[in-house]
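Quality-control log, excerpt.
Job 1 of 2 completed; input and output follow.
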Amino acid sequence: MLEAFGITRSLSAKGTPYDNAVAEATFKIIKTEFVRRRSFESLDELRQELSTYIYWFNHKRIHSILGYLSPVEYQQRLTSEFV
């Protein structure tokens, strides 16, 4: 089925359970904060609201692992250190 949509399946190498830990943690947060207990009238509504959520997640939501900065703020600080 994935091939029908042009999607290539990617798996971690055997014995490397932490390969995809950041992505898995991010998807867990999205499921917990955005998806649970919600329904959408259409695919377009889902896309719009998910886009809004991802913008908020990257620009406004603080992350403890990033020193209580948003990902964008964290990246800007790192970039300014090297410029």
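Job 2 of 2 completed; input and output follow.
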Amino acid sequence: MNKHVILLNIVGLEKSHIEKNFLPHICEMIKEGEYSNLDTVFPAVTCTTQASILSGSYPSEHGIISNGLFDRSRYEVSFWEQSSSLVQRPRAFDLIKNNTESITTAMLFWQNSLYANSDIVMTPKPLHFDDGMVMWCYSKPAGYYEKLAEEIGEFNLTTYWGPFASSKSSQWIMDSTIATIKKYKPNLLMSYIPHIDYSAQRFGKNSSQVLNDLKKADELVGNLIDVCKQINIYDETRIIIFSDYGFNDVNDAIPLNKILRDNNLLSVRTIKNKEYLDLENSIAFAMVDHQIAHIYIKPKTNEVIISKVKHLLENVSGIDIVLDNKEKQIQNIDHERSGELIAVSNNDKWFSYYWWNENDKAPNFTKTVDIHRKPGYDPLELFLDPTTKTIPYDTSLIKGSHGRPSNIFPSDNNDQIYISNRKTELLNKNKSNNGKNNPINIVDLGKHIIKLF
């Protein structure tokens, strides 16, 4: 019986890591249960995949088309928006609550969890005051974070993102997960181990730093298993591990907005000698997210202009494909929030959000950790220039990126993975005619989890 289900998202865990047999706790789970390749959604980025597995639906349905969103009515880009209501399909905790009120759910450090219909929620929500920032976490029940901080210490946001991001963030999240299990024994718990993400982007997917971080992740899994055994719930607990994406080694970035600007498609305004995006008067701009970019084109622009933009991008060195409406439908990302076009880089490139041609023209916030004002994901926030004490602009520093799922781009060799400590009917349902296991689809996995209750 699965009285308890723990869904653990380990960023960057790939099939090749399991085959190397240096993760004893995870490998022991596989011996007891099962594992398989995991076909994920496009794009393979955190917010999109987490929304897909919890809702059992595609981005075309739930609307989380990347880690960022563009509000067309306000000409504003925002990344890492946390509101639960942004997900336009009910998720596991919603559906379970509809069926059984007595079920307890917990959602720790997952995206789009703010104000979610879950009994227990924990997510970073720093408070900004005139005299500085308070590294606070929103929690439900109210005050739960404060009680937890007294027990395990306060959460340090700088270990979660920025130049000092490290495995300490994952350690705190696991400590809070274990404390939550002990206190509430939730029937469905979702938690997150993010730290492999940092070393893969800084040093590359096959670096010694990633190897060490994988071992740390395995240690945390071991801690989780030990606690479940200590409080006598392991035999009735199903632990599911999945990776939302694997990594590609990269060597440089493509500055899409610079390219659009140089072709008179993107406009800027100069204010106090700094250049700012002028989205109102731009024909096209790119909201970039790792190895994919949504290209938004001015409303009422005719199809000829859209075709010209597509042709322009298709001829940019380092861009693999550019999706139009038909191709977006094929990849299940034909949602009104998506760009008119979606660009995908080659597997050894990624997209930078830069629009300026001279660094001294860049707004000051571009040299800081500022995940909300930048119109794109900025992996260089993982670095700090030792001389200027600011975020550098050297895109060659980034050694790993993601966004291209291996089920769509099989040559990338970054297979996502599903692991369970219990055998299920999932693998039997996915057997091919020759008896081999086909990959499990992340949307189907989400539907399976919902049916467990």
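Post-run check on job 2. The CA atoms of residues 88 and 395 lie 35 Å apart.
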